[in-house]
Design a protein that fits this description.
Layout (H helix, E strand, L loop, with lengths): L7 H45 L1 H6 L6 H19 L2 H14 L5 H20 L6 E5 L6 E12 L4 E9 L7 E6 L4 E3 L4 H9 L14
Antiparallel strand pairs: 1-2, 1-5, 2-3, 3-4
């Protein structure tokens, strides 16, 4: 077989080879990036958590490795959790929060972070907020995905309304709340987890289509 780099056949084979390698490279990137990002985030979290309790050991003049700082921080967080579960500990935490909320520069930041975490915790734990619905917007046939967060009675209109949180992609913690008559909502077959993945991925991760029963 003659080897001629200038022949059309060689050019076609080289092009197919490069296309194949490029495709395999993209596939490898798509598979590897989630692992790399996950490890990167875990490494940052591990280092950050480890630095929280390091001043404690420095005060005791103990040279502590990162793993000891990490374990110490986890133990302290568990202790705070136990405190919050008891009346005296909860009162102490509320007292510290009241002090922080009086500090001009700290109060807005602390209040915003606490409110965001409380909202996310309520959304994850509340049975009502796990109800996924569609809201027809901005035109007929177009649907927005939302989470029901509650109901309330509007005395002025003498009517029951439903509160729906409409998250924004790719950050489900950001969004806006709309007040909708119950009859305007369309029930959604997606679970809370499926809808959350759909929003976070910007529509790239969608639920698999159910197979027809034989």
């Amino acid at each position: 077989m003659n080897f001629n780099p200038q022949s059309p056949e060689f050019t076609r084979r080289a092009k197919r080879l490069l296309q194949m390698l490029w495709g395999r490279l993209l596939t490898g990137v798509v598979i590897a990036v989630p692992f790399i990002v996950t490890l990167w985030v875990l490494n940052i979290a591990y280092s950050f958590i480890g630095t929280i309790s390091s001043p404690l050991w420095e005060t005791l003049h103990v040279k502590s490795p990162t793993i000891l700082n990490f374990v110490t921080t986890i133990v302290l967080l568990i202790a705070v959790g136990f405190m919050a579960a008891h009346v005296i500990g909860r009162q102490l935490i509320e007292y510290v929060e009241r002090i922080l909320l009086r500090v001009p520069l700290i109060a807005p930041l602390y209040g915003a972070v606490k409110q965001m975490l409380d909202s996310f915790r309520m959304m994850k734990s509340g049975a009502q907020s796990k109800r996924v619905v569609y809201l027809e917007y901005p035109s007929e046939g177009s649907l927005l995905v939302g989470f029901v967060t509650g109901q309330y009675y509007e005395a002025r209109f003498q009517k029951e309304y439903t509160l729906v949180f409409l998250p924004m992609a790719p950050n489900p913690l950001a969004g806006f709340v709309v007040v909708v008559p119950p009859e305007k909502l369309i029930e959604c077959s997606l679970s809370f987890e499926e809808a959350s993945k759909l929003i976070v991925s910007g529509g790239l991760v969608v639920p698999s289509r159910p197979t027809d029963a034989a």
